Amino acid sequence: MVRVKRGKIAHKRRKRLLKEAKGFRWGRKAKYRAAKEALMHAWKYAYRDRRNKKREARHLWQIQIAAFCRELGISYSKFINNLKKNKVELDRKILAEIAREKPEIFKKIVEKVKT
Is residue 85 within 8 Å of 114, Cβ to Cβ? Predict the structure, then answer.
Protein backbone atom coordinates (compact mmCIF):
# COMPACT_ATOMS: atom_id res chain seq x y z
CA MET A 1 0.00 0.00 0.00
CA VAL A 2 1.20 3.48 -0.86
CA ARG A 3 1.99 5.86 1.99
CA VAL A 4 -0.16 8.99 2.07
CA LYS A 5 1.28 12.08 3.74
CA ARG A 6 -1.35 14.52 4.92
CA GLY A 7 0.82 17.16 6.61
CA LYS A 8 0.26 19.78 3.90
CA ILE A 9 -3.51 19.78 4.22
CA ALA A 10 -3.55 19.78 8.03
CA HIS A 11 -0.97 22.57 8.10
CA LYS A 12 -2.98 24.62 5.60
CA ARG A 13 -6.16 24.20 7.64
CA ARG A 14 -4.46 25.22 10.89
CA LYS A 15 -2.73 28.15 9.24
CA ARG A 16 -6.03 29.43 7.86
CA LEU A 17 -7.64 29.20 11.30
CA LEU A 18 -4.73 31.03 12.96
CA LYS A 19 -4.97 33.71 10.30
CA GLU A 20 -8.64 34.21 11.26
CA ALA A 21 -7.58 34.61 14.92
CA LYS A 22 -5.17 37.44 14.12
CA GLY A 23 -5.61 40.28 16.58
CA PHE A 24 -6.79 38.08 19.45
CA ARG A 25 -5.00 38.48 22.77
CA TRP A 26 -2.48 36.22 24.48
CA GLY A 27 -2.19 32.61 23.31
CA ARG A 28 -5.47 32.71 21.47
CA LYS A 29 -3.77 34.16 18.40
CA ALA A 30 -0.91 31.65 18.29
CA LYS A 31 -2.00 28.35 19.81
CA TYR A 32 -4.21 26.30 17.53
CA ARG A 33 -6.52 24.82 20.14
CA ALA A 34 -7.06 28.13 21.96
CA ALA A 35 -7.52 29.98 18.67
CA LYS A 36 -10.10 27.46 17.45
CA GLU A 37 -12.10 27.76 20.67
CA ALA A 38 -11.92 31.56 20.62
CA LEU A 39 -13.07 31.65 16.99
CA MET A 40 -16.01 29.35 17.67
CA HIS A 41 -17.20 31.74 20.37
CA ALA A 42 -16.49 34.81 18.23
CA TRP A 43 -18.48 33.44 15.29
CA LYS A 44 -21.35 32.47 17.58
CA TYR A 45 -21.53 35.99 19.03
CA ALA A 46 -21.19 37.57 15.59
CA TYR A 47 -24.12 35.50 14.27
CA ARG A 48 -26.27 36.34 17.30
CA ASP A 49 -25.44 40.04 17.29
CA ARG A 50 -26.16 40.51 13.59
CA ARG A 51 -29.76 39.84 14.58
CA ASN A 52 -29.61 41.83 17.83
CA LYS A 53 -28.32 44.87 15.93
CA LYS A 54 -31.60 45.08 14.00
CA ARG A 55 -33.60 44.65 17.20
CA GLU A 56 -31.67 47.40 18.99
CA ALA A 57 -32.05 49.79 16.06
CA ARG A 58 -35.83 49.34 16.03
CA HIS A 59 -35.92 49.85 19.81
CA LEU A 60 -34.01 53.12 19.43
CA TRP A 61 -36.42 54.34 16.75
CA GLN A 62 -39.35 53.57 19.03
CA ILE A 63 -37.77 55.55 21.88
CA GLN A 64 -37.14 58.54 19.59
CA ILE A 65 -40.68 58.52 18.20
CA ALA A 66 -42.14 58.18 21.71
CA ALA A 67 -40.14 61.18 22.95
CA PHE A 68 -41.36 63.40 20.10
CA CYS A 69 -44.93 62.16 20.51
CA ARG A 70 -44.91 62.99 24.23
CA GLU A 71 -43.85 66.56 23.40
CA LEU A 72 -46.87 66.82 21.10
CA GLY A 73 -49.29 65.38 23.68
CA ILE A 74 -49.92 61.85 22.41
CA SER A 75 -48.61 58.52 23.65
CA TYR A 76 -46.51 56.29 21.39
CA SER A 77 -49.02 53.44 21.40
CA LYS A 78 -51.94 55.71 20.48
CA PHE A 79 -49.84 57.35 17.76
CA ILE A 80 -48.91 54.00 16.16
CA ASN A 81 -52.47 52.71 16.49
CA ASN A 82 -53.88 55.84 14.81
CA LEU A 83 -51.26 55.59 12.06
CA LYS A 84 -52.51 52.11 11.24
CA LYS A 85 -56.16 53.18 11.39
CA ASN A 86 -55.48 56.07 9.00
CA LYS A 87 -53.48 53.76 6.72
CA VAL A 88 -50.30 55.85 6.94
CA GLU A 89 -47.62 53.40 5.85
CA LEU A 90 -44.44 54.93 7.26
CA ASP A 91 -42.11 52.60 9.09
CA ARG A 92 -40.47 53.44 12.42
CA LYS A 93 -37.09 54.14 10.84
CA ILE A 94 -38.52 56.84 8.57
CA LEU A 95 -40.73 58.28 11.34
CA ALA A 96 -37.73 58.60 13.69
CA GLU A 97 -35.69 60.27 10.94
CA ILE A 98 -38.48 62.74 10.16
CA ALA A 99 -38.96 63.51 13.86
CA ARG A 100 -35.22 64.18 14.31
CA GLU A 101 -34.50 66.15 11.17
CA LYS A 102 -37.82 67.76 10.22
CA PRO A 103 -39.92 68.21 13.39
CA GLU A 104 -42.44 70.47 11.63
CA ILE A 105 -43.38 67.66 9.21
CA PHE A 106 -43.60 65.19 12.10
CA LYS A 107 -45.92 67.62 13.88
CA LYS A 108 -48.19 67.66 10.80
CA ILE A 109 -48.24 63.83 10.75
CA VAL A 110 -49.21 63.77 14.44
CA GLU A 111 -51.96 66.37 13.87
CA LYS A 112 -53.33 64.35 10.93
CA VAL A 113 -53.31 61.18 13.04
CA LYS A 114 -54.86 62.81 16.14
CA THR A 115 -58.09 63.71 14.31
Answer: no
